[in-house]
């Protein structure tokens, strides 16, 4: 193996390493974007859950006014 051939192989390996580093940084960027989206979705789901609980309580209050208070459930 000649010196020039070894230098060429080292350059090829260095190019592959750089390509892998770029691919890894791109995957990390995608992962970070997914984490941000997941957090936003979680916050939206919590807000929806809170709104459902408020709506349920509002409906229950209306029913209680119309029908009178509910009896305590049997234990």
Task: Write structural notes for this entry.
The mean pLDDT is 91. The chain is rod-shaped, with a radius of gyration of 31 Å. The protein has one helix at 3-67. The protein has 75 residues and is mainly α. The longest helix has 65 residues, at 3-67.
Low-confidence stretches: none
Report the helical percentage.
Answer: over 70%
Overall mean pLDDT: 91
Could you spell the SSE succession in H and E letters? H
Rounded to the nearest angstrom, the radius of gyration is 31 Å
User: How many strand segments?
Assistant: 0
- Sum up the overall morphology in one term: rod-shaped
Structural class: mainly alpha
- Helical stretch tally: 1
> In what range is the share of β-strand residues?
under 5%
Q: Give the termini separation.
A: 87 Å
Give the biggest beta sheet.
none
Can you give keywords for this protein?
75 residues, mainly alpha, 1 helix, rod-shaped
Short description:
It is built from 1 helix and no strands. The protein is mostly helical and 75 residues long. The model has no long low-confidence stretch (mean pLDDT 91).
């Amino acid at each position: 193996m000649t010196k020039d051939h070894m230098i060429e192989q080292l350059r090829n390996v260095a190019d592959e390493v750089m390509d892998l580093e770029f691919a890894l940084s791109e995957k990390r960027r995608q992962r970070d974007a997914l984490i941000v989206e997941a957090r936003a979705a979680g916050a939206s789901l919590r807000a929806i859950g809170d709104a459902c609980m408020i709506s349920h309580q509002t409906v229950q209050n209306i029913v209680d006014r119309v029908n009178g208070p509910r009896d305590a459930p049997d234990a």
